[in-house]
Design brief:
The protein is of the alpha/beta class. The protein folds into 5 domains: about 1-80 and about 650-680, no CATH class; about 90-225 and about 620-645, 3-Layer(aba) Sandwich (Rossmann fold); about 230-325, Immunoglobulin-like; about 330-530, Class I glutamine amidotransferase (GATase) domain (Rossmann fold); about 540-610, Immunoglobulin-like. It contains 16 helices and 32 strands. It has an 8-stranded mixed β-sheet with strand order 17-16-18-19-25-24-23-21, with helices on both faces. Strands 5-4-3-6-7 form a 5-stranded mixed β-sheet, with helices on both faces. α7 (about 195-200) links the parallel β6 and β7 (about 215-220). α2 (about 55-75) packs antiparallel against α16 (about 655-680). The chain starts with a strand and ends with a helix.
Length: about 675
């Protein structure tokens, strides 16, 4: 107990007054008058009666009344910290946030987190309500606002650390939402975590996190003062072609997050069998890498894993990835009959390079079959006249997702009835053979076709000379490049899932010398990449990513079965046809396939933990609290609200008022008793 004005307690010395009053004996003497006193001897009067207290009850009432009044003016109060005072004054709405990221599996962190959460549940008062929230990269409400400790305890017993990474912002935003819905006057967040610094620094939208006013944030840090950890870094794959087969050399690294050097063995497993093991030495707080011997990629979806020996944090000691033979971009080049040599420069450019590798088929407009269009990704019309029938077939090809490049040289034509396919119809020939030749200019460098050439010295299109080109009738699409007179050189039109590019000159030496320029080779490859929508499939994914399932499955368009995924734990997931997406929630290999399709159509996805979680460096919880409540966390134990002042606690408890009333009642009782004892009615 404390007092706001302890000096007033000195007035308790006045308690001696009632004692003195009771000890004073007043004696009334009777005076007898005599006519003469001359014959009487003077004798001094002396009282021999002993002084004593006769009314103990009256004395006790007076002493107690004075003591209570003096104590009331000293303003007493019981000392409480913020949380105890809140529990005493009113009920609380509590949100218990428990970090379930995989760094909580280090040492005894998860056991300490469970103990802290159990203490928080047991510390709830009768009128309190609590929500139990588990969070890592996202946040999930396990139990919503209840006073049932049994439900909260069951949710805690069922919880476990998983493969996610720490992200504080989603959890704190969810906590703010839960507190905002509560009618209870007191609000509290109990945050149980190892408080990894990267969990806050790498959180998107952290500046938008604000908790309701007067929210108390209690951090419970369960980390270790020091920690050491080794983790496998993402692998690098070097592909080569040998005898029409892909060979892959894997380079893997190890990160050492400790102050001492380490020497370990790094192994490579392929389809469950260890292929090679190499020793690696890593310096303090350093990294090191090794390159394994190349192996032949003999089939699709080969499952590979790089492993470290187990340590205190095992999840980051493995890195999974998938290796498949490179999928070529199947391209059909359509020439005029007898004019195959006009595609010489184009074919040589396409045959160079393997990212992507282009598989070329040559056809004429008469020999182009439906099967060619069915397996093709890109069709290049090299200065050919197009009939109505062929235009219809090409329109269906584009709508189904194919890419079309139409080079409109002197022989090119397109039926007006299918003008909805091209960006515009080839018009009259513009002759620039007399006078200065035309130059390319006004390139749209923001477009993927020209984005590669945005940087200085990355390719000069202006050096190419154009002697003839086609004007465009009824242009309806964006222009990606123009000649110096403003005539479109390259135009684009998108139709459903496909893309169409219209090149208004030739792709040989007939009307220009672009094939002789160094920029021609990368230009042809960027065009093929864009038309095929080529993206090199990633060898690995990260837990928490959402992968488009239908695109990942490589299923033939004729298949109509449901898409399913088998998770690493064996759980079977049926994916909806609308979104068709897989959220990777486990570490390991996912297998995605379509029901009714053969196993060769399946796709395997490798899911790994976010390696930023491997850095166990902790932050001061007060930094995070200050950021989310908008003021420094100055209270004891990192509480968001400081300890209340003596005056505030005395004002809240109002003990002085009760003491003053009690003192007044005792004085009234003392008056009644005193009157009764003295005979006053």
């Amino acid at each position: 107990m404390g007092f706001v004005a302890p000096l007033i307690l000195g007035a308790l010395a006045t308690l001696a007054i009632p004692v003195l009053i009771h000890l004073i004996q007043r004696e009334k003497k009777r005076v007898v008058e005599f006519p003469s006193l001359m014959f009487l001897r003077r004798i001094p009067y002396q009282s021999v009666r002993r002084r004593r207290i006769r009314h103990w009850a009256l004395l006790m009432l007076r002493l107690a009344a004075l003591a209570l009044i003096v104590a009331a003016f000293a303003r007493p109060f019981f000392r409480r910290n913020t949380l105890a005072a809140a529990a005493q004054q009113s009920a609380r709405e509590v949100v218990i946030l428990v970090d379930t990221s995989y760094s909580m599996e280090y040492g005894g962190r998860w056991a300490r987190a469970q103990a802290a959460a159990r203490d928080a549940i047991n510390g709830l008062s009768a009128g309190d309500r609590a929500s139990f929230v588990l969070f890592s990269s996202g946040a999930e409400v396990a139990v919503r606002s209840t006073s049932d400790r049994g439900r909260l305890g069951s949710a805690l017993a069922a919880a476990s650390a998983g493969p996610g990474a720490t992200r504080f912002a989603p959890a704190l935003k969810l906590a703010g939402s839960l507190l905002g819905e509560s009618p209870l006057p007191r609000r509290e967040v109990i945050l149980i975590s190892d408080f990894q610094r990267r969990g806050w620094e790498q959180t998107p939208g952290r500046d938008d996190v604000r908790l309701p006013d007067k929210t108390v944030v209690t951090p419970v840090a369960v980390g270790d003062p020091s920690s050491a950890n080794l983790s496998v870094t993402p692998v690098s794959l070097q592909r080569t072609r040998f005898e029409n087969q892909d060979r892959v050399a894997v380079t893997a690294g190890v990160a050492n997050r400790s102050a001492s050097a380490a020497r370990v063995t790094l192994s490579l497993d392929l389809n469950g069998q260890q292929m090679q093991a190499l020793p690696v030495s890593i310096g303090p707080n350093g990294t090191a890498s090794v390159t394994f011997a190349p192996f032949t990629v003999s089939s699709r979806n080969m499952r590979a894993t790089v492993r470290l020996p187990p340590d205190a944090l095992a999840r980051d000691n493995v890195f999974h990835f998938v290796v498949s033979p490179g999928e070529p971009v199947r391209t059909v080049v359509v020439n005029r009959a007898g004019a195959e040599r006009e595609s010489l420069y184009l074919l040589r450019a396409l045959s160079i390079g393997d990212t992507p590798r282009v598989e070329i088929t040559e056809r004429t407009s008469d020999t182009l079959s439906d099967n060619d269009l069915r397996v093709a990704t890109v069709v290049i019309l090299n200065d050919v006249p197009v009939s109505d029938t062929l235009a219809d077939r090409l329109a269906r090809f584009v709508i189904a997702g194919g890419g079309l490049l139409f080079s409109s040289g002197p022989h090119a034509s397109w039926p007006a009835a299918r003008a909805d396919v091209l960006p515009g119809l080839p018009g009259a020939i513009v002759d620039r053979t007399s006078g200065p030749s035309a130059r390319l200019g006004a390139l749209e460098y923001s477009h993927p076709v020209f984005e590669l050439f945005r940087a200085p010295r990355s390719g000069d299109f202006s050096s190419a000379r154009f002697y003839s080109y086609r004007a465009i009738d009824k242009p309806v699409a964006p222009v990606l490049a123009r000649y110096d007179d403003g005539t479109p050189a390259l135009m684009e039109r998108k139709a459903a899932e496909g893309r169409v590019l219209l090149w208004t000159s030739t792709i040989d030496l007939g009307w220009n010398d672009l094939p002789l320029k160094p920029v021609f080779l990368p230009f042809v490859h960027t065009v093929i990449r864009y038309l095929s929508d080529y993206a090199e499939p990633p060898s690995s994914q990260t837990v928490g990513q959402v992968v488009p399932a239908l695109r990942a499955a490589h299923v033939a368009t004729s298949s109509r079965g449901a898409t399913i995924a088998l998770a690493p734990s064996g759980a079977r997931l049926t994916l909806g046809a609308e979104d068709g997406a897989i959220e990777l929630g486990e570490q390991g290999f996912y297998e995605v396939r379509t029901q009714g399709a053969g196993p060769e159509t399946a796709t395997v996805l490798a899911s790994n933990v976010d390696l930023s979680e491997s850095d166990l460096t902790a932050m001061d919880p007060r930094e995070l609290i200050a950021a989310v409540i908008g003021r420094p966390a100055t209270g004891p134990n990192g509480f968001a609200e400081p300890r209340p002042t003596d005056d505030a606690q005395a004002q809240a408890q109002r003990l002085w008022w009760y003491l003053l009333v009690a003192g007044g009642l005792l004085l009234a009782a003392e008056t009644l008793l005193s009157n009764q004892l003295t005979g006053v009615s």
